[in-house]
Amino acid sequence: MYSYNEFDRAFITERNKQFRSQVERRIDGSLTENEFKPLRLMNGLYLQLHAYMLRVAIPYGTLDGAKMRQLAFIADKWDKGYGHFTTRQNIQYNWPKLPDVPDILEALAEVEMHAIQTSGNCVRNVTADHFAGAAADEIEDPRPTAELLRQWSTDHPEFAFLGRKFKIAITGSPNDRAVTKAHDIGLRMVRNAAGEPGYEVVVGGGLGRTPMIGQVLRDFLPREDLLPYIESILQVYNTFGRRDNKYKARIKIMVFEHGIDEIRQMVEDRFKIQREVFGGNDQNLFADIQAAFAPPEYKSAPTEALDAALNSDPLFRSFADTNLAEHKNPDYAIVSISIKAHGQTPGDATSDQMRAMADIAEKYGHDELRISHEQNVILPHVHKGDIYKVYQELRKVGLATANIGLISDIIACPGMDYCALATARSIPIAQEIALRFDELKLEHEIGELKIKISGCINACGHHHVGHIGILGLDRAGVENYQITIGGDGTETATVGERAGPGFAAEDLLPAIERLVQAYLEIRKDRSETFLQTYRRLGIGPFKAALYPAESIAAE
Amino acid sequence: MARAFKSKVLTANRLIEGDVVYYAADGSWVGKHEDALLIEDEAEGNALLAEANKLANYLVGPYLADAILNDQGKPVPTHFREAFRTRGPSNYRHGKQAEV
């Protein structure tokens, strides 16, 4: 894992000192709220419905036991004993008090963490595949690139006041687990015909009010050209992107309005100049960063314990079916810890659970943890001989839910239970759906089905790319939920199709049940997933299930 | 014709704690919606809001929110967002529902 150098440390210390003074000046009245607000947002501090909220960056979702333990400490000391992991691989504290925030930031700095650029119109926390460095299908670990981008974008003076926020995601695998095509810039690590490493650069993706799938700007960008090229994209966006209308200010609108070819020409023209500016120092830096992400020293030990446990413990077998993924080392597996126990809030972990995960990572996981954009926690490197022990430890703290990728593994934004922007609640909807399908004992039968819920059009809950997407709206003063079907956040990214009129909160769960029941009836067999069935048959049969009265009327 | 004025309460978040408060008839800021002053006159509402905007050391983002009187003569919110603000989140017993 990357460790701060002196420059990083000095920068964070200085920023925290500045913010402490800004908070003091706000409290003593020297700063008005209008003056203070942009300063607090630059440091990740929002004012939400019931309290302040601090959003802490977990760069590319990577942390170790010490960092996780510190997050737990902060949750206990200054919050209400839990934290909320988000779709941007961040953690949010929902109840900090303003005078405590400088102390929280100092506590974060002790473990080389911060909340900088988790808000505002700047380059945000760079996200990455949560299986990075471990996945069997990986071409190359994307985290050194993500770290290089973090260093380049942090406090970059030219890009501190962009037209709108700017999100970059990167994957090192052909199977996209980082939703790269729904980001302002998506990077996919590839090799050219000569076997040289580089990136496919996708631009102009995004969800929100105007969902768009990103388009390929460059199909192969040599590794050494990354920063000058990304900088060229940002410069073109910063210069020509719209600032007249907040809702048209993301780069996706610019790409849509100008067309990808014109954008490409603008970027390539700029790149000719920028390329000369970068003298190669970034590549020296990159080599150092890469060394920090060397794979762990894998152990060589018997793996029979796994098979024995699979044969003897059916509950563990169920866990293994859903929560294990293939590791590049055949003696190892990737363990996904579900932060989605049925009926609990998606992404919320208590401080005790955080400490347990820290302990387990240190004891059995080469001291590595990841946060996934699906609001789960990953142990990327667990030896097969230790998996059963890990499972037993997880069970003790309520973290052994066997539902990864299933209908109860729901992404849900905080919604109107917390968020000042929300138009409806998300969390209770997720809780109800998970509890209902657990009660029906149907979710393993249903198989892979991703439900994603957003409590407003900004789509933090990624509803557009949910196999079933749910969007909560305020319809004439009542919470109302629109359903989209067929969304996909992977390498075959697709924006879901709106099924029809929305549902009142009390009608939503029965509607979801009808939808899932229809799928079970029309799928070819168990191997055909919900998404595959939708792709084979279209939205028709799902619409008929959602709106039975209308279908009868039409006949 | 101007639209009829809908009755309101004056509300904001506190600067230090970030929690929700309401303006009461005695000029204090209180935690319970039912203790708020129901404002039935537009000019009065705007005047109180202008005063609240001067309390920058104590409040953040004051605004007027629709409210009506219930059967017991207490002000209650008319919109669900404001109703949530009187209680706290629905997933945990945190916020006002636990404190007030």
Summed up:
The complex is a heterodimer of chains A (555) and B (100). Chain A is of the alpha+beta class and 555 residues long.
Give a written overview of the molecule:
The complex is a heterodimer of chains A (555) and B (100). Chain A has 4 domains: 6-110, Sulfite Reductase Hemoprotein, domain 2 (Alpha-Beta Complex), CATH 3.90.480; 142-292, Sulfite Reductase Hemoprotein, domain 1 (2-Layer Sandwich); 304-396, Sulfite Reductase Hemoprotein, domain 2; 411-554, 2-Layer Sandwich (Sulfite Reductase Hemoprotein, domain 1), CATH 3.30.413.10. Chain A has helices at residues 6-27, 33-42, 65-78, 101-110, 143-153, 226-240, 251-258, 260-277, 281-292, 304-312, 314-323, 351-364, 387-396, 427-439, 443-446, 505-522, 530-537, 540-546, 548-554, and strands at 45-47, 52-57, 62-63, 82-85, 90-93, 127-128, 168-171, 185-191, 197-203, 215-222, 324-326, 332-337, 348-350, 369-371, 377-383, 411-412, 451-454, 468-475, 478-485, 497-498, 503-504. In chain A, strand 18 and strand 19 form a beta hairpin. By secondary structure, chain A is α+β, with helices and mostly antiparallel strands. Chain A is built from 19 helices and 21 strands. Chain B is globular. Chain B has a 5-stranded antiparallel beta sheet with strand order 3-2-1-4-5. By secondary structure, chain B is of the alpha+beta class. In chain B, 23% of the residues lie in helices and 27% in strands. Chain B has one domain (8-94). The A-B interface holds A 26-29, 32-33, 47-52, 80, 94-99, 345, 348, 416-418, 425, 427-428, 431, 474, 477-479 and B 13, 15-20, 56-57, 60-61, 78-81, 84-85, 88-92, 94-96.
